[in-house]
Amino acid sequence: MNVKSAFLNGFLQEEVFVEQPKGFVDAHHPNHVYRLKKALYGLKQAPRAWYECLTQFLVDNNYTRGSVDKTLFIKKDNDELFIAQIYVDDIVFGSTNNTKVQQFVDVMSHEFEMSLVGELSYFLGLQIRQLDDGIFINQAKYAKNLVNKFGLENAKHCDTPMSTTLKLSKDASGKSVEQTLYRGMIGSLLYLTASRPDISFIVGVCARYQADPKESHLSFVKRIIRYVNGTSNYGIWYSLDTNASLVGFSDADWAGNCDDRKSTSGGCFFLGNNLVSWFCKKQNSISLSTAEAEYIAAGNGCTQLLWMKQMLVDYGFNQGTLTLFCDNMSAINISKNPVQHSRTKHIDIRHHFIREVVENKCIVLEHVGTNV
């Protein structure tokens, strides 16, 4: 569903004045200006005004705004659930009852000028196939356009997105390449990670060298694109699963950065058997041991789990104690033992909140083997 001329519906709270448009100047008051009551396209206040207008309208019609995601609106009636997700002027919605869907369409069409596009099949570059036993999401069209954009459609495909032996560094003595080209490749690949967790780590690593890219960095990025060229149809399958338990996995690449020896945190999170979230993020501090790097990564995983737990409450799924899997027993023991230790006394206090959530039994850390 799309709202036509959405920004023109918002009322302004601030005082905004505009000059009289050419051809419509009042001959008696040529120096006067107009004060706007409603938003216009181009105003920085327009998106906020539209959001407040739509929010107030939906709340007045008994739709509840999400407690975590403020662009989520929900309506519950016994066992029936209706959800609507707002993205500027596009609205994605669905329900367990088709009557609720039609009611929403009628309510919105009565207040705003709408255009309906039917069942969701394409949204912001995501291709969505809805089948009886699940949903498949990928970005095949976008991936092919990306490969063609950078002229690598005829290049040899790669089986993996990165080499397991070569390491990236600043390469101060290397030959510089065009920044615009390199940054364009990185930006395009970052958008592709919305449905491709398999390239998330290496794209994030390559993105660190956008300030002064070298030929060695460009060759890594081209390898990723060649891998994408051979796997453009890859995506994520969400099966029809009644299991709604939320679990997470965390890991760390200890001292993986050759320049500053900082580690990278990684994590993935499953709702039942379905992958719903993932991240790869460079840590802010240098870890002195594998246990410390894994401990910080587990803390990052805990924050994501707790955020997702609260979001699921809006959807009607209440989670008990969550499980986070980690492959380092030392990190697990540190999280369970509140005693100050020489190995952990220098760790920033913000990472130690994991001890509190473990003590309160919000999250339990379990060991999982690296090779499992």
Question: Oligomerization state of this entry?
Answer: single chain
Rg = 25 Å
> What profile does the largest beta sheet have?
5 strands, mixed
The termini sit apart by 43 Å
Low-confidence stretches: none
Order of strands side by side in the largest beta sheet?
A: 15-14-13-16-17
Overall mean pLDDT stands at 92
How many beta-strand segments? 17
% residues in beta strands? 15-25%
Structural class: alpha+beta
Number of helices: 9
Helix and strand string, N-terminal first? EEEHEEEEHEEEEHHHHEEEEHEHHE
Outline, from the CA principal axes?
globular
Percent helix range: 25-40%
InterPro entries: DNA/RNA_pol_sf, RVT_2
Pfam families: RVT_2
Organism: Acer saccharum
Domain Reverse transcriptase Ty1/copia-type: 1-163
